[in-house]
Design goal:
The complex is a heterodimer of chains A (106) and B (901). Chain A contains four helices and two strands; from the N terminus they run αααββα. By secondary structure, chain A is mainly alpha-helical. Classes of the chains: A mainly alpha (106), B alpha+beta (901).
């Protein structure tokens, strides 16, 4: 069965893993922008993350309000084990696909 | 992040579901802060991109799913495009709704455009001219110093009484103040002198004679070169500092300017420095500064100068005045008349901007009233519109729409209208500002800082603030009222009575306010206009029609002897009389109401010294009174034989005759007149005295200014006084302006005489009133705008009432009511609140008219004619504006109306 993850979802999950305990909207946006050179609006990030949460792939909680963001709190995301499993699955699928690609095409 | 951004972010947060609000707003401010380091524009663009790309619809759907509530998302988000409709789509919908009734949109947009445009233009002027600090370091510590003269204060002569605290200061006074050590004080005397550069023609240019420390007091360094040294000041050296504008105009910004020469007042000066462009002391348009000439050294006590002071930080003007007064008291031991003198400090800012600041403030107040009227108008439209849409709003309320949603729906439209109106208004202002500045500087060449006027960020910020304020003031209360009552309407079906009564009550209040505000402006503009009309048509005692004037100078350098000067003048007069169309040339110094008058002390022969009066001296040629049609009351006029070789004679004005001789016959009596009078320590002191015989009496004229009555005038034969400033009056056939060019050409042929100015005499007498005239024109324009807006407001209300009451009217007419009666009822309904408003407006105008006092001449500020006329004008306008749509009431077909029920 193919992965249920879109590429944006994959990117977000990976970014969340890369940020460890500090995975929140602005940080995810910056990571994706820096590494994947892809511009995603903050609104899209939160909607997408919220959907992943529904599916049990991430969990979220509100952090403490901090300065530098107008006294607003962050929503911190953590990738669940189910999320990890989905990611791994997606990766496997990709690797599988790549493995069968004839050498000269690479 | 600035508070403005914070507010904007708060507003944006309002568009988001609460589930996401906190995190998203926080992320956005954090992201903004990160990008802020890369530049404000990078961050701003990013922020705008985020706001526009936010998937509002998905956020709301997601939030709904998360909370598990089934409430429809419509109307839970305040503004349409937050519901996910997309900004563009919401705008399209609003545009469609607005264009469905293009009348509303057009009228509202036009109202906004005109008022925002007018406010932008006037604020643009105010900002550049009044709000920006003067271009000198610590400019708030700079003051102009006037002398005060207690003896004048209680004197019997009106022009001295009115000038008692605007007397001059003397070199000695300034020296004593500077010696106090606590402040810098310098002196100057502003004026216009003939300036010639290279082989070009001499031209009268304003500038100032300055004392030591003038530039240092102001704290301005020259752009090029230096300012005069103390030694040059002491010796009265012929060195000249010029203004950058003169440097550009006459020397093409020659970098080798220093050491070049210019001829000022017939004397050659070496240019030592150039002052930068914003420098404008003593006045806008001052182009040269030179040390006091050496001969002034003997006038140490002459109170003929203006003072300039820079106070130390934390010293109040009152404290400084006190120490300055004490210093003058000490001077009084040398010159007792200083005993009545003192100092008065006026902020330099007030002095420089004084001629226009009152007018600009007045205009700003007026434009605020216009904006208020626009608010009222817009509110009226929103009320009417809200009432029309009541069934729709009620339906939406019934379907569960919250009050906030209803308010937001209405506000979106008002906001859109305001936005379009404001953009148009700013465009109007941008187009109008250039021509307006041109107009101002043409009408009043020394209009301060006119060149600085621009639509800058501050001005645009003001326009934006006006727009937002208008939108909130006009949109919010009616929207709230409509939203509050909408749910209640559900039960009332399509019934109309109750609703329209409350709407009409609101509308009546708005009409009342509108009429009152418009009345206020109309009355003010009416007073100014009527006053100006009176000035234009008043009889000044002389006839300036068909008379041209040529103001000439006979420089002492070129004509050391009076005889030579008078010969040159003869040649000029002969040349001018040959110009076709010129019927007579007569010499004078000066002509009436042109400014530049000399005052001399006189007393009846035999009277004690202290009975002398200061009077206006006019040196005039033989046919002067005939040329200006001044009636001769007794005796004779001057003759060609009244020259330097004959007995000194004089003609007195009627008021002077009364002052000197009471009811006695003045003819044949002698007057003691001082020549070359100088104000010494505040007292006019005679250089030498001579007895002159009174040979004639003439009617009073307005000698000092068109708007001043009854100043006593002593006329002396021109050839006996031989002044070096002469004005030739040219009696002409036909329009004097057509003769100006040939006259100028003819005058150019006479060697050595400097032609300062040439023009139509009547225009020249009105020039002194230019600031007031500007005020009249601009106030007139604003009040016309106010009246037009009020008219639109009345029209809108009556249109609404008529269409709202079609059914009622139809029934009435079906039951036998007369159609005319219905029209009258409509008009009366609109006129009653207007009448009440206008009455209150008149009362307010009466109370506020005091602020106009300095701009009103020849009529009282309580002039009943003006108030009655403008009152009737406003009511007529209101009646017309209500009658036009009310006529439609008569076209109501009862059958059609009742069939529709």
């Amino acid at each position: 069965m193919a992965s249920q993850l879109t590429d944006l979802e994959q990117l977000l999950l990976l970014a969340a893993l890369r940020q460890r305990d500090d995975a929140y909207g602005a940080a995810l946006q910056k990571d994706i922008e820096d590494v994947a050179e892809r511009r995603v609006s903050l609104g899209s990030i939160h909607v997408t993350m919220s959907r992943l949460e529904e599916r049990g792939l991430v969990m979220s909680e509100m952090g403490e309000p901090t300065g530098g963001r107008g006294g607003k709190a962050r929503r911190l995301y953590t990738v669940t084990s189910r999320g990890m499993a989905e990611l791994n699955r997606a990766r496997e699928i990709f690797e599988q696909m790549w493995a069968d690609v004839p050498q000269e095409a690479g | 992040m600035s508070p403005l951004w914070r507010v904007a972010l708060g507003v944006w947060g309002g568009l988001l579901p609460s589930e996401f609000r906190e995190a998203l707003v926080g992320d956005l401010s954090e992201g903004f802060g990160l990008r802020r380091k890369r530049g404000r524009w990078v961050a701003t663009l990013w922020l705008l991109g985020e706001v526009l790309r936010t998937p509002y619809l998905r956020l709301w759907r997601q939030a709904r799913k998360m909370s598990g509530r089934g409430v429809p998302d419509r109307d839970r988000s305040p503004i349409g495009w937050a519901r996910g409709e997309g900004l563009w789509r919401t705008v399209r919908i609003a545009v469609r709704v607005l264009t469905r009734r293009p009348g509303f949109a057009a009228v509202a947009v036009a109202t906004l455009a005109l008022s925002v445009g007018a406010a932008t233009v006037i604020f643009g002027l105010l900002e550049a001219v009044l709000l920006r600090p003067l271009p000198y370091p610590d400019a708030d510590r700079l003051y102009t110093v006037y002398g005060t003269n207690e003896a004048w204060r209680d004197g019997e002569q009106e022009f001295l009484r009115s000038a008692w605290d605007r007397a001059g200061v003397s070199i000695e006074m300034v020296r004593s103040w500077d010696a106090l050590g606590s402040m810098r004080v310098a002196s100057y005397q502003g004026g216009s002198l003939a300036l010639r550069v290279g082989d070009g023609p001499a031209e009268t240019v304003s500038g100032a004679r300055i004392g030591n420390g003038f530039f240092a007091t102001l704290g301005v360094e020259p752009l090029v070169g230096r300012t005069p040294s103390p030694a040059e000041h002491r010796d009265g050296a012929p060195v000249l500092v010029i203004h950058e504008r003169l440097w550009s105009r006459d020397f093409a910004r020659d970098p080798e300017i220093l050491g070049k020469t210019a001829v000022l007042d017939g004397r050659t000066y070496t240019i030592v420095g150039v002052m930068p462009r914003p420098f404008a002391v003593p006045a806008e348009g001052s182009l040269w500064w030179a040390p006091f000439p050496p001969e002034w050294a003997e006038y140490g006590h002459a109170t003929i100068l203006s003072g300039l002071a820079r106070l130390p930080a934390h010293t109040t003007a009152a404290a400084a005045t006190e120490s300055m007064n004490a210093a003058v008291e000490r001077l009084a031991s040398a010159e007792p008349s200083y005993g009545v003198m003192g100092a008065r400090l006026v902020p330099l800012r007030d002095e420089v901007l004084g001629s226009v600041s009152g007018g600009l403030r007045l205009l700003f107040a007026a434009v605020c009233v216009v904006v208020l009227i626009a608010c009222v108008n817009l509110a009226n439209l929103v009320v009417a519109r809200g009432a029309r849409r009541m069934p729709e709003l009620a339906l939406r309320a019934a379907l569960g729409a919250g009050r906030r949603g209803l308010v937001a729906t209405m506000l979106t439209e008002v906001g859109l209208v305001c936005l379009v109106g404001a953009v148009l208004g700013v465009a109007l202002a941008a187009g109008a500002l250039g021509p307006l500045v041109d107009f101002l500087t043409r009408a009043m060449p020394d209009f301060p800082r006119a060149a600085d006027v621009s639509l800058n960020v501050t001005v645009l910020g003001f326009s934006l603030a006006v727009t937002v304020l208008t939108a909130v003031l006009a949109g919010l209360p009616p929207a709230l009222a409509a939203a509050r009552s909408a749910p209640a309407r559900i039960l009332q079906g399509s019934g109309r009575g109750g609703r329209s009564r409350s709407v009409r009550r609101i509308q009546s209040t708005l009409l009342f306010a509108e009429a009152g505000l418009a009345m206020l402006l109309l009355a003010g503009a009416g007073l100014l206009t009527r006053s100006m009309a009176r000035v234009f048509t008043l009889d000044p005692g002389f006839d300036s029609r068909g008379v041209a004037y040529a103001s000439v100078e006979l420089p002492e350098e070129r004509f050391p002897e009076d005889v030579d000067a008078l010969q040159a003048l003869d040649a000029l007069e002969a040349a001018l009389s040959r110009v076709p169309g010129v019927t007579r040339v007569v010499e004078a110094s000066p002509l009436p109401a042109m400014g530049g008058s000399t005052m001399v002390p006189v007393r009846p022969d035999g009277a004690p010294d202290d009975e002398q009066s200061l009077v206006v001296l006019a040196s005039v040629g033989p046919s002067y009174f005939e040329t200006l049609s001044i009636p001769v009351l007794g005796g004779r006029t001057f003759e060609a034989s009244d020259d330097g070789n004959s007995e000194p004679v004089a003609i007195v004005s009627a008021s002077l005759a009364r002052r000197l001789f009471g009811d006695d016959d003045p003819l044949g009596r002698f007057i003691v007149q001082a020549d070359g009078a100088v104000m010494m320590g505040g007292r006019a002191e005679a250089g030498s005295e001579k007895q002159v015989e009174v040979v004639g009496v003439v009617e009073d004229v307005r000698q000092l200014a068109l708007v001043r009555e009854g100043d006593p005038v002593l006329y002396r034969p021109f050839r006996q006084t031989a002044p070096r400033d002469a004005v030739l009056a040219l009696a002409t056939q036909g329009s004097p302006t057509r003769l100006l060019e040939p006259a100028r050409a003819a005058a150019a042929e006479v060697d050595g005489i400097v032609i300062r100015d040439l023009g139509a005499f009547r225009d020249r007498t009105l020039r002194l009133l230019a600031p007031v005239q500007l005020r009249v024109v601009l106030m007139g324009a604003l009040s016309a705008l106010a009246a037009a807006l009020a008219m639109v407001g009345v029209y809108g209300v009556v249109s609404y009432v008529v269409s709202d009451q079609r059914r009622e009217i139809g029934i009435r007419i079906a039951l036998g009511a007369r159609k005319d009666g219905e029209t009258i009822r409509m008009v009366r309904g609109a006129l009653t609140p207007c009448l009440a408003g206008a009455c209150v407006g008149v009362l307010a105008a009466l109370a506020l008219s005091r602020t106009l006092e300095s701009s009103i001449f020849e009529i009282s500020r309580l002039d009943p004619v003006t108030y009655v006329a403008t009152f009737l004008l406003l009511l007529t306008v209101a009646a017309l504006a209500s009658w036009w749509p009310a006529r439609r009431a008569t076209r109501v077909d009862p059958v059609e109306v009742l069939n529709r029920e």
